[in-house]
Structure formats: C-alpha cells, structure tokens
Design a protein that fits this description.
Strand order of the largest sheet: 1-2-4-3
CATH architecture: Orthogonal Bundle
Mean pLDDT: 83
Strand content: 15-25%
Largest sheet: 4 strands, antiparallel
Helix content: 25-40%
Number of helices: 3
Number of domains: 1
Order of helices and strands: EEHHEEH
Radius of gyration: 18 Å
Low-confidence stretches: none
C-alpha cells in the first residue's frame, strides 16, 4: 500500500487480491470505467484508490433477492 497526501492507494496486485480477480480483470474494469487508476510518478505503475476499490467490493458483495423460476409463478 502507498499513502499519498493522506490517501491510501493499492498496487495492481493488492487491488486485484482485494477484489478477488485477476490483474487482467482489474485492467478491464479500468478500461470500462468501472474503476479508476492513477499513475505513480515516472514509472508505468498504476495505483488504485483504496476507498474506490473497497466501494466496488461492497457493491459486488451486495446480495440481491433470489427470483424464483418462472414456472413457479406463471399461471395458465
């Protein structure tokens, strides 16, 4: 973890582990605008704001009610 101006940022490996996804999936999230990445210095390394990653984790873990199969609620 990296702290910049009091804000916590995660490396690619840390963010992917927290989300439970592969690095490639994390990159796909960024390319689709689901998550934002931040450039660190002159290197090509990208960082991910910890608060944003944790918000995405909470969103993914939110449980939705199960919908019964259609044959259980459709009548003739």
């Amino acid at each position: 973890m990296v702290v910049l101006d009091g804000e916590e940022y995660l490396t690619v490996e840390e963010a992917a582990a927290l989300l439970g996804v592969k690095r490639e999936t994390l990159y796909a999230y960024v390319s689709r605008g689901i998550l934002k990445s931040y450039k660190q210095g002159m290197k090509r390394q990208r960082l991910y704001r910890r608060a944003e990653v944790e918000a995405l984790v909470r969103l993914e873990r939110r449980s939705f009610p199960d919908i019964p199969p259609a044959e259980n609620w459709i009548r003739d």
